[in-house]
Amino acid sequence: MRHFRSLLKPSIAVVVPAALGVTYFAQQQESSRCKGSIPTSEFLYQPLSEDKAPKNSIEFDTKAPLPKRMEALILRVQDEICAGIEAIDGKKFREDKWE
């Protein structure tokens, strides 16, 4: 029995990685066949309106630091919200900044 186990160990060391490789290869082939077969337009978010941010805004500059990009986004959205409230209320917001 001990001799049988010593013969079995090397074969397991070869068979298991080979089986894993075959399984991985089969999964890769299956996933490559599935790409593009599902119409993504049914699942992706459709914008409700055109984006008002200019295309040259820092928000779209991937090389700019993320805090600066987020600041520009938040300030732009805040301006849009304030403009909407001002239009309804008829008064201008007073602007102040924290230092």
Automatic annotation (TrEMBL):
Alphabetized InterPro entries for the sequence: Coprogen_oxidase_aer_sf (IPR036406)
Keyword list, A-Z: Signal
Record bears the keyword Signal: yes
GO molecular function: coproporphyrinogen oxidase activity
GO biological process terms on file: porphyrin-containing compound biosynthetic process
UniProt keyword Membrane, yes or no: no
Signal sequence, renumbered to the chain: 1-21
Full protein name: Coproporphyrinogen III oxidase
